[in-house]
Amino acid sequence: MRQIDHFISGGAGASASRFAEIMDPNNGGVQARVVLGDANILERAVQAALAAQPAWETTNPQRRARVMFEFKRLVEANMDELAHMLSAEHGKVIADSKGDIQRGLEVIEFCCGIPHVMKGEYSQGAGPGIDVYSMRQPIGIGAGITPFNFPAMIPLWMSGPAIATGNAFIIKPSERDPSVPVRLAELFIEAGLPEGICQVVHGDKEMVDAILDHPAIGAISFVGSSDIAHYVYHRGVAKGKRVQAMGGAKNHGIVMPDADLDQVVNDLTGAAFGSAGERCMALPVVVPVGDDTAERLKAKLIPAIEALRVGVSTDAEAHYGPVVTAQHKAKVEGWIQTCVDEGGELIIDGRGFKLQGHEEGFFIGPTLFDHVTTDMESYKEEIFGPVLQMVRAASFEEALALPSKHQYGNGVAIFTRNGHAAREFASRVNVGMVGINVPIPVPVAYHSFGGWKRSGFGDTDQYGMEGIKFWTKVKKITQRWPDGAPDGGNAFVIPTMG
Ligand code: NAD
């Protein structure tokens, strides 16, 4: 059976006694196994990082940028191979797999400008003969712990800024689809990155805990579910590390009575069911304002959902593929039952969906509920599958309150032709990322990504300038070059600029 190994110091890592199975979501079988590492494996990676990092930090930023340029070229040249590898383990369709890689690559493009964005600030003459300036320096060794649902984009969100700023970076990808991060690390080396600067260690909680506890790792970026994000944040911070930990989501799409419903239905079906709903920026809750809007929307939504094509991930015509594992399929179907038991009106039931010739694949048909209410557990929690819940609101204020009061605050969208309503919504909603007639408002690479409330712990977002801040420390220097003349100052009084 194919085995996926650690990637330490530019090559495959040591033997292992524990493994996790990599499933084939299209067919339900086991396609490979990944080694599960421990503190000893991590120690090897940390030692390699410690040996390589000082020279990388002092490599001038233009040369570091050139590695990013070449890496970008190599990822583009290998796009098909990477997309098929990603799709085979995750189950998302090929076009969407390419999108996953491309959104990560856009962060690498941003990192090609690292000489510019790392420049410090300078104030000449802050006092008599005194200048004050600042410089950004890398943390040293950083680590990334990533979820299964974006096996290219999220490792690239982290590795690009971490490496470009002069750190050594160790990634611990999801044990459910770990092949793409290893391939990306290989391409970094091919692009000219020194060995030991981008490494991959595999594992589960044991490896995550080893990373959280290792004294040489100074910064940890995590993306995954909220309970684990919370745990990672607390344990990492308690060990004196800088931690950013992005968690789960339950994004709402508010539909105002004046919205263009054909556009809404088009956007909503893609955002709710694309990637089988396994996106932290999916739109699994739709909130029509007013019963009339709800009825008009439902009438258009039902045929659009019924027309969706669920297929194997290599089917170019399919809108979405299987979910990642049998356990995840059972969990999503369990939530559908919970919503039924709680009184949600099941309009379209995706359970029991079988794809001919792929009966053992982890497929779930698209599912639609109406009359979901805020007291239901299935509304409060993240389902992370192809399930759309309609929660009706009587007014704009009621609609605004729903995402604002929800435990998660990752993304939200409003669909309207009314600029005033949109502006009001954007400024008042208690959510980190807002789309105005944009269903999945993932900010572009030169802005930053991050949710609020239980969708994000820590205070620095991913990528853009926030990413640069996260992976660097600012050193502040105050200098004077006295010429020997007496300055008459009193050295015993705290200096002021008065
Ligand atoms: P997950 O929390 O199960 O796993 C994430 C990482 O944590 C993996 O590397 C995993 O190995 C590790 N892990 C799992 N259990 C652990 C434990 N007990 N202790 C320590 N580490 C552990 O998440 P997932 O199922 O892979 O990904 C889906 C989740 O990620 C969803 O909740 C989704 O909303 C969220 N997500 C959030 C964002 C965001 O930016 N906010 C982006 C993508 C995904």
Supply database-style keywords:
seven-stranded mixed sheet, 23 strands, Aldehyde Dehydrogenase, Chain A, domain 2, Aldehyde Dehydrogenase, Chain A, domain 1, six-stranded mixed sheet, alpha/beta, 498 residues, 2 domains, 16 helices, binds nicotinamide-adenine-dinucleotide, Ald_DH_C
What is the CATH topology of the largest domain? Aldehyde Dehydrogenase, Chain A, domain 1
Strand order of the largest sheet: 15-16-17-14-13-19-20
Radius of gyration: 25 Å
- 3D shape: globular
Mean pLDDT: 96
Q: In oligomeric terms, what are we looking at?
A: single chain
Derived structural class: alpha/beta
Total number of helical segments? 16
Ligands (ions, cofactors included): nicotinamide-adenine-dinucleotide
Overall CATH class of the largest domain: Alpha Beta
Count of individual domains: 2
The percent range for strand residues is 15-25%
The tally of beta strands, per DSSP, is 23
- CATH architecture assignment of the largest domain: 3-Layer(aba) Sandwich
Helix content: 25-40%
- Strand count, sense and closure of the main sheet? 7 strands, mixed
The termini sit apart by: 73 Å
EC number: 1.2.1.27
Keywords: NAD, Oxidoreductase
Protein name: methylmalonate-semialdehyde dehydrogenase (CoA acylating)
GO molecular function: methylmalonate-semialdehyde dehydrogenase (acylating, NAD) activity
